[in-house]
């Protein structure tokens, strides 16, 4: 997680980052603890706000009700349930 944080941070600090599309929080749950992932995402969200970058974090539907995702949702500007989204024009 440290290497990933450093790499993303360098891109954001360089001003070359317009959008981070992080797919997916569910994958991280396989490899890391909820606490570690929450710290990582909170760090990224703070960095996003400071640098003016935008970020999208995805998760699988079955993880949407996890404590981790609920915690992260409190810091998000918006939460979108793609299943409820109307794609018709």
Tell me about the largest β-sheet. Answer: 2 strands, parallel
Shape: globular
Can you tell me the residue ranges where pLDDT is under 50 for at least 5 consecutive residues? none
What is the element string, with H for helices and E for strands? HEHHEH
The helix/strand class is mainly alpha
Q: Please state the CA-atom Rg, rounded to the nearest Å.
A: 14 Å
Return the domain count: 1
Q: What strand line-up does the widest sheet have?
A: 1-2
Mean pLDDT rating: 89
Helix content: 40-55%
* Strand content bin: 5-15%
Please explain how this structure is put together.
With 89 residues, the chain is mostly helical. It has one domain (2-84). The chain contains 4 helices and 2 strands, in the order αβααβα. A two-stranded parallel sheet has the order 1-2. The mean pLDDT is 89.
Attribute tags:
49% helix; mainly alpha; 89 residues; single chain; two-stranded parallel ribbon
């Amino acid at each position: 997680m440290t290497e990933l944080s450093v790499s993303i941070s360098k891109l954001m600090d360089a001003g070359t980052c317009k959008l981070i599309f992080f797919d997916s929080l569910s994958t991280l749950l396989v490899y890391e603890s909820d606490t570690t992932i929450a710290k990582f995402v909170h760090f990224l969200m703070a960095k996003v706000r400071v640098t003016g970058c935008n970020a999208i974090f995805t998760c699988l539907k079955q993880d949407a009700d996890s404590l981790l995702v609920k915690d992260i949702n409190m810091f998000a500007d918006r939460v979108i349930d793609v299943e409820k989204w109307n794609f018709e024009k």
